[in-house]
Amino acid sequence: MVDVPNKVAYFQAITGLEDPDLCTEILAAHGWDLELAISNYTSPNPVSPPEVPTAATSSTPATGGSVSSGLEFHESSQRPVPASNAAAGPPGLAWKLVTLPISVISGSLGLISGAIGLGLWAAGGVLSYSLGVVGLGHGAGRDGDSSARLVSVSAAASEAMEFVAGFDRDYGATRPNFVSEGFMDALQRSRNEFKLLFVYLHSPDHQDTPLFCERTLCSEVVAAFVNENFVSWGGNIRASEGFKMSNSLKASRFPFCAVVMAATNQRIALLQQVEGPKSPEELLTVMQRVLEESAPVLVSARLDAEERRNNMRLREEQDAAYRAALEADQARERQRKEEEERLEREAAEAERKRKEEEEARERAAREAEEKAAAIARMRQEKALAVGAEPEKGPNVTQVLVRFPTGERKERRFHSTATIQSVYDYVDSLGCLDAENYSLVSNFPRLVYGPEKLSLSLKEAGLHPQASLFVEPNS
């Protein structure tokens, strides 16, 4: 007896899948062999599971026509609601929210998915494929070939390129333009281009596959319509990502086509699925209807994106204008501060010069006062050195002193007084600004310089009277 709840719970814990119905179908497809189901789910090259009938979530017409989901998506609740409970109205698209396998998502995220895979591997020890994506598996680092690691990072893209190359080889170049990248990258491309994603799951072993590919999928009218209005992605169910997407989309009949668009929380909205062989006309009719019914959603998404871009551009312009105004304000503030600092420096410099000039004037005044005081003391000392003027007598010499200004001074000296005494007398008068001068007689011209200062007036020939000129020395 199969322990269904425990196996489903264990499979959810190991793979990270949240949808118990999907886990149940995967386990049922593998004959409830838990180890085989986990290995196939996490392996890049899964083994085809045994054919086990699975219950379809929605009825499939006997003719193999299109199958729509019994769940209708309501934006207000963000949850799928039974179609029977939806409000009555004109017929519209039937939406089904499909949870993507975590390995499909991580496989398209490159190095980031490797980090997630490493954590899951440490917890459960089963996500070897995710580790292999970033080169952390058992064979990593053996040959040190960095190019091999780069190839392994884009394993989903490699599978897509192999599918496209194989499809071209088998059916020619007239086909939908399948993108050579992983499913999640193709989904993101469709979101960026505001288009729906056309998904084709290729079952090479199915008897209807060759005829469907040759007559329907590769017909010029179908290929042109799909290439113009959709982003196309194809996957081989023998490959890892194709197998996982067939489980996610619950493909029960082949050939299998679907139209999906991105939803939230790592989910996709399944708008339409077409199972079984179809003629070009039938497929075009279904695709045209899906395109028409999805047009308002795509137009709204495009308008929202344009509004976001316009708002972003407006914010950037406003931010740029604000930054320019702020920079201008800052420049004016810097200029104002620099002007204030310049004025402060000039004021400080002027104050310093004023103080220096005031100090210089005060110093000059002090020096002048000191010099005047020194001259006054010198004159007083000279006057004391000259002594009192003697009365007239035979031993008294009459000396007349003429100054450069024309002023004349006359005084009597003892005949024994020295020439120095006459100099002292002249100095005591204060009538001469020059400090360095000489006493000179005209007839004959004699200069009584330093060498004659010690001679008496009588010895110098100036007795009984003499007339001397004060001559400043140059």
UniProtKB/TrEMBL annotation:
Entry keywords, A to Z: Coiled coil, Ubl conjugation pathway
Keyword Nucleotidyltransferase attached: no
Record-annotated UBX domain positions: 392-470
Residue stretches of biased makeup (Basic and acidic residues): 329-369
Highest taxon, organism lineage: Eukaryota
Region (Disordered): 45-85, 328-369
Biased composition (Low complexity): 53-70
Pfam families hit by this protein: FAF1, UBA_4, UBX
Record-given protein name: UBX domain-containing protein
Source organism: Trema orientale (Charcoal tree)
